Amino acid sequence: MRLYALAVYAFLYLPIAIIALFSFSAGRSASSMQGFSLSWYGRALNNPFVMEALWTSVKVAFLSACLATVVGTMAALALTGMKGRVRRVFDLAVQIAVMIPGIVIGIATLIALVTVFDLVNPWLEPLTGLKLSLGTGSLIGAHGLFTMSLVVLLVRGRMETLDPALIEASNDLGATPFGTFRQVTFPQILPAILAGFLLAFTFSFDDFIIAFFVAGAETTLPIYVFSSIRRGVTPEINAIGTMVMAASLIVLIGAQLMLRRSQARPRP
Amino acid sequence: MAMTRSRARALLLTPAGLWYAAMLLLPLAVVLIFSFGERSQIGGYAPGFTLEQYANLPARFAAFRNTLTLAPLGTLASLLIAYPLAYYLAVKVTPKWKTMLLVLVIVPFWTSILIRSYAWIFLLGGKGIPAFLAMFGLEDVRLLNTPFAVLVGIVYGYLPLMVFPIYVALEKLDKRLLEAAADLGTPPWRAFLQITLPLSMPGVLTGSMLVFILLMGEFLIPSILGGGKVFFVGNALVDLFLQSRNWPFGSAVAVGLVLVMLVTVGLYTRAAKRFGAGRDDAALM
Amino acid sequence: MKDDQQPISRKAFMEELERYRKGSVTRRHFLGVTGLGTAMAVMGGSLPRMARAQDIGNRVVLATWPNYHDPADFDAFTDKTGAYTQVNVFGSNEEMLAKIQAGGSGWDVFVPTNYAIPTYVDAGLIEPLDLSKIPNYDPASYDPRFAEAGTIDGTVYGVPKNWGTTGIAFNSSKTGGVVDSWKTFFDGARDQFDGRVMVHDYQLTTIGNALVYHGFSFNSVDPAELAKAEELLIDVKPHLYAISSDYQPSMRNGDAWLTMCWTGDGKQMNTDMPEIGFALGKEGGEIWSDYYAIPKDAPHKDAAYALINFLLDPEVNAREALAHGYPVADARTNALLPQELLDDPIIYPAAEALSPLEFGAAVTLTDPNRAELMARFKSA
User: Fold this and answer.
1) Residue of chain A with shortest Cα separation from B254
2) What pLDDT score was predicted for residue B41?
3) Is residue A91 part of a domain?
4) Which positions 26-65 of A are in contact with C (Cβ < 8 Å)?
5) Are residues A210 and A91 in the same domain?
6) Do C378 and B228 make contact, defined as CB atoms within 8 angstroms?
7) A15 in the same domain as A60
8) How confident is the model at residue C87 (pLDDT cuts 50, 70, 90)?
9) Mutation test of the interface with chain C: which of A231, A233, A236, A237, choosing the one with the most C Cβ atoms within 10 A?
10) Structural domains of chain C, ranges and CATH numbers in brackets
11) Calpha distance C363→C122 (Å, rounded)
């Protein structure tokens, strides 16, 4: 059993070890080792396009995750315990958004927005001098569509396990609805909200398929990696991959430690 | 009170509603409309009403066939590899190591799937595993650019998504049930079949559904590890929109893919219900 | 002193000028902050630094083909103008066209091939070039065969980058000799080279060379001829190593022995690994020329002109040719290239080897039947 687990971990980490190993190569080839050097790390960090792509990715992931978390949580709050047609329509929308393949979302968003922009721009441009085009906005919209639905599912799932007696008690004790939410409901659904935010951020940060279609002239990190790979993989790409992974490992372990500390603290 | 409550609900739902309308309803409606249109001379879309695009769908039969073979196969392979690991993590590992080992399952997920798949090109290419096998006398093994390579890439890419739901299901399992079974003299393998496996079914179904759905729309792994020879519906869509610029036919293929997915997932949930696996929308998470 | 060399933005310059005129700052201050002081001090000796004062922004986006530039030249461009070049690489003209057609590509310069230009002009996606902004382009020094497709109805839309051919690259240590016919290419794929042959991932050359195998025109859109080509391709498919336009890695590591190949890639591989050779199909095939062009909605047009002009400087162009191994149609550039390069049979094949080759036609690119044929081939 233990051996088996070891084998699976080896399977998971072998390619990553290879990426990390070749990132230290001194030569140009990304698939063989020619001496040891850190120069590719320096190059990646000094490459303005890498930094800009990273910044775009972080910006899009952060904004879309914030929006998705807030809007999704609001919807989940409203949907809990709700019945009727509106509820059914929303349930359907959530299910479709989660189930439809990313590639279909990407393509559909692309052709819909291009068509709408072509209709709107001839009116908009002379009036305001602005021109709508694909970019950060469409990325946030398309990523958020999927991640907001995840948040709805997570938060609603959590809401449904809440003890209604607590809320009744709070109401009976004269708390305003908002007071009840702030002091009773919110602390209890917070883990689900945070989990939703993290999932949303990760999804958007790592997404290539949807971004490939709707990014317009923007370049996110996965898009940069994709187009660099077509130019021939260099150890620079391996260095970027290794750094992103190391950073996420640090964040994960940090989060883990914080969680442990907060759990260790006795509850008031 | 009732009035303010429904008004609050409306307020809370409006942003999400607008988002769904603009980014889900509108795009899907456009795809549906375009799928009845015609291809303009230089590509793109020309308005019209024709069923020609749908009539042409059999031209992508092979893509649908490949997807519908490799997606279930990939799901099954992931399941078979993930289950023992999830079992090990949930049942055998001491709590001290558990979190650590769980984190290690997700970490690869944080490196771009693109870069990880490219690492497999090296591993499966002539200088990788085949060269290793040649040392043992297995000459001329070709792995890269085959359906097998795509399968490896798929399992590799989606394994964590399968491990987690199963782990969660097994974690919830009441260990006393197994102790009781052991006390009653049930052999471990029977206890597994009669207690552990049925109780972990919700996790198995969730994981399988998740991986299956993602595989149905996959195009990256086949195009990287399949050398352009393993063709999924996703690849057909990419070619139609990013090479031959046939938007109406591409839209029809997209509609076809969504329909096929709805049917297969629907059948799957019905079968799952028969297994008594509980709530389905929860199964999605 | 260091500060003086920093370029000053146009707006800040105007403000300083205004303040100087009003007399609120001294002449010395004005010349100092605007950099004109330095410029005047070194006038005559350093024209490149003057070029910095002409503000083209700090970026330019180039959409081009794989292995087609010397990265050092982009660094030189940055040093000279302050603008960084973002290079996006594409695999086919179809792909470029699709991206540009969807709008908002964000490109400033792109590199269409001869047969794609009429389509861009018809669709209104390409900018007529202002040749006064490309002084390094001297039409008189170019071989008209590789320059004429850039001009349509008297308007110049593209200036020539390189020309080349699509032939066969072979690893002679595995193939046991030169492969110089499409007959051997496609028949060998099903026989002695089983599992070792690569074809391009776009219809023009893959279908075109299958047509040539049967003795038809590379550009044929005749349904009966296309049917024969399809039959051949589908028969060959299970024996192929891959369908991909990114063939260098597989050829270099020995997994693939034979591939459809562009001139420069053939030269690059041959330079590093002499056992990899390059030959033209003796039945025919493609000859092409690529052009620098500017999309209609290019966001940084000044930078686009500056980049094109920079790359067409004969000295830069010669450095590029040395790096990528594609022939140049510019006599001034060729005068700077070493004789052995000009005599290289890969880069400048003998005229009789070129004579059976055909330029791709505009209709070949947009023909929907060829696109569908390619899709059937890939999904078979």
Assistant:
1) A104
2) 78
3) yes
4) 31, 48-49
5) yes
6) yes
7) no
8) confident
9) A231
10) 3-53 (no CATH), 59-163+288-342 (3.40.190.10), 164-287+349-379 (3.40.190.10)
11) 12
